[in-house]
Amino acid sequence: MEYFIQLFLGGLTRGSIYALIALGYTMVYGIIELINFAHGEIYTIGAFTALITASVLTLYGFNEISILILASLVAVIYSSAYGFTIEKIAYKPLRHAPRLSPLISAIGMSVFLQNYVLLAQTSDFLPFPGLVPEFQFMKKYEHIFSSTELMIFLTTSVVMIILTLVIKFTKIGKAMRATAQDRKMAMLVGVDVNRIVSITFIIGSALAAIGGVLIASHIGQINFYIGFIAGIKAFTAAVLGGIGSIPGAVLGGFILGWTESFATGYVSSDYEDVFAFALLVLILIFRPAGILGKSKAQKV
Q1: Distances from the Cα of 231 to the Cαs of 115, 218, 225, 253, 292, in angstroms?
Q2: pLDDT averaged over the chain?
Q3: Model-wide pTM > 0.85
Q4: What's the CATH fold of domain 18-286?
């Protein structure tokens, strides 16, 4: 029974990781129906920014909590600036182009950023410090669920709740929903669509940065390639739950995380990706819109 609980909690942590990154994918797609394939690289940039910031703060004798907060803040600001810039350079000029053009641009930006991080840093794995302090009440259970894993789960849950409330009840959220439903009509009623799209990219990039900090702290190492793998898995989670749906991204992340965890524990670690993508194929066959997604009627 304890082994099952370990796998369950391990899957919960994996799922929270995928969900945190998938929220950025699903927000951008919900607004402009674009898959931002550079999102995984923003996650990588956030992790490296946090590593550099944490290293500098450690030299000046800051404590763990201060380092975690300041490193996360710098990573969020820096990654948000990248997200904002990417939208202006790679996507905005192609907003009215055929749908294949921004898709190719997104893949190109992903490759560019990946190699940019490689040249700016190194191809080797670098150690990442454990920024999350060990909570006193968790010491009894640290052999099955660590403080970092708890922080990842709580962060994902809080972010989902806040995003849902913002989109449902705030002025910016209403503007986002209007832009997602009909961009031209939103412009006619006074919504600054360019501003809303930029805000969406900024929020999505900030979430990727937070994910990068927490996940790198949990794993204990990073390199230039981590964003590609995490991005593909997060994209799978977003599609699984229903891309464009915030609760769907979180649900898809949890399902994917549990699938991989139990497949690794009861079958073999060699097949964790096989089970994950087999699940995605089944969902796309029997429910193409995803678990919580809504099918859109096509105009003929």
Answers
A1: 16, 17, 10, 12, 20
A2: 85
A3: yes
A4: ABC transporter involved in vitamin B12 uptake, BtuC (1.10.3470)
